[in-house]
Design brief:
Elements (H helix, E strand, L loop, with lengths): L12 H9 L6 H10 L2 H10 L2 H8 L1 H14 L7 H13 L8 H4 L3 H12 L3 E2 H8 L3 H13 L3 E6 L6 E6 L5
Antiparallel strand pairs: 1-3, 2-3
Length: about 180
């Protein structure tokens, strides 16, 4: 038995705001400004009580994508709602659910994200394979991989089992 009724994902702002802030009327544009500014109660209450879809819908997809890495750092460790908003941010940003919302990642150029995404989905791929998967010239992949290794997001292992030595690429969260 559910004691608190879930607010539908297509509910109006007034309905969603009332379910989150109970005893006060909150203007949608003021809410957005306060959340983006990192106001402690607006941000924490909204992340904990709004559905993921409503949080992103009322903040705006672009604003959520750009601001979530910074906003999540303002929330106390273990705050409700953070894991599901992290997963939503990762899906919007990279098309995967396992990308950590780091502020630096939000600022990456598209090609770096494409290279990293290819490596996430194809652990152990070589530079040539990543170039083919991401549709990025080999030389540029080499540069992106070097930058990602410097950031501590990738590791590479040499594979000398074939006629040519290949550099196999892995994200740090993967097991080889």
């Amino acid at each position: 038995m559910t004691l608190i009724k879930q607010t539908p994902d297509d509910a109006s702002w007034e309905t969603v705001a009332r379910s989150v802030f109970w005893s006060r009327d909150v203007d949608e544009s003021n809410w957005r400004q306060q959340v983006i500014a990192g106001h402690p109660s607006y941000l924490a209450d909204s992340a904990a009580r709004m559905s993921t879809r409503n949080f992103i819908r009322f903040m705006g997809r672009g604003a959520f994508r750009l601001n979530w890495p910074r906003l999540r750092e303002l929330l106390p460790a273990g705050s409700r709602g953070v894991p599901r908003l992290d997963a939503a941010w990762s899906l919007i940003e990279t098309g995967t659910f396992n990308m950590p919302p780091q502020a630096a990642l939000a600022e990456w150029p598209g090609r770096s994200r494409e290279v990293y995404d290819a490596i996430i989905h194809h652990q152990g791929a070589s530079l040539y394979e990543v170039a083919s998967l991401a549709g990025v010239p080999y030389r540029r992949v080499h540069d992106h991989v070097h930058a990602l290794e410097k950031r501590g997001l990738l590791r590479s292992l040499l594979d000398d089992s074939g006629p040519r030595v290949k550099r196999r690429l892995y994200t740090l969260s993967s097991r080889s």
